[in-house]
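ok trying this again, last paste got cut off
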Amino acid sequence: MIRDLGPFIPKRPYKLDAPILTMLLNGVHDRHQGQVFVLQVGAGSGDSGLPLLQRFRDDGWSSLLIEPHPQNFAGLDALHAKGDRVAVLNLGISDLAANLPLHSLTPEAEAVQRRAPRGRASLIRDRIATPGTRPEDIISTEVPFLRMDTVLGELGIDSAQIVAVNAGGHEAQVLTSFDLATLDPSLVLVHSTPGTAADEACIATLTAASLHPFRVAGWLAGLAPDRLAVPLEELLTFFQKGTGAPQDTEE
């Protein structure tokens, strides 16, 4: 049950993002007693984005990490080379099986655009061709793409506690390439752009799988109803309500 706790408008909402995301991950961990399997599409090099690396190393979580970009995958593979709970695959996920051109900046262009996210890649060329980007700054690499249901069937994966998708604007197609409800995740995180048709399609897919959609830390989060519980003491500690704790007057 969702209860309205009344209006709360923090002066700096972005300060709440990382702790709330951590609380959600803690909730999944507690719910499944540490037996958490993560299915991640668009894992990048594995050391940025979602704070999952420490979970794999310290909390006993396991995962299938999928990354299509060759350079990103090389870093991802090296990062988990000595681990036995994390599997990595170098391919793309879509609603069809085909070899498709994946666009990204050249290393030289990426070095110049220091404020741009590292390792950006997308099937949509316009997402890479930002203002000031020259045609020669973009390279295209043909990458094999498969449907997720094919991958899950080949590997015998029939459940996941967390599903995370960051596919450079291709998230809606990833989500429609498998039966999300059958995996029965407690938490789904989708990196989509609010106000776009693709974002609306992602929300529709989450809702159809009986997940409640929210915005958390730049992600579209789908929560399984009545499943994730944040300990009250964890929430009160975050808001500095302990006796003797300094009160935050900025929020």
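PB: full thing came through this time. The chain has a mean pLDDT of 91.
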